[in-house]
Amino acid sequence: MSNVEIIKLNDKELEDLGIDSWNKWGMDPSSFDWEYDSDETAYLFKGKVKVTTEDGQEVEFGAGDLVKFPAGLKCRWHILERVEKVYKLE
After folding, report:
1. How far apart are CA 66 and CA 45, in angstroms?
2. Residue 67 has pLDDT above 60, yes or no
3. Which one, out of 21, 24, 55, 86, has a CA that is 20 to 30 A from the CA of 66?
4. Degrees (nearest 5) of the Cα angle 71, 72, 78?
5. How many beta carbons lie within 10 A of that of residue 55, not counting itself?
């Protein structure tokens, strides 16, 4: 399974995606297990995260990254620095 995809976009591309209307979410440093019921696209305004997938893949991302998580992905989030993000489910 293709897991986590990290994309760098410019301000115009982010505006075209309509991220201003996406759901907001924030979390202080912590770790937790998560499973995605649907595809999620997220944009991080602030923070740093390491995600470890159930097959052992480790992916780090942070402020300025657009991240895509596929439905069915099981992983463990390790929030290294407070996260402030917006997201949409598909």
Report:
1. 10
2. yes
3. 55
4. 95
5. 10
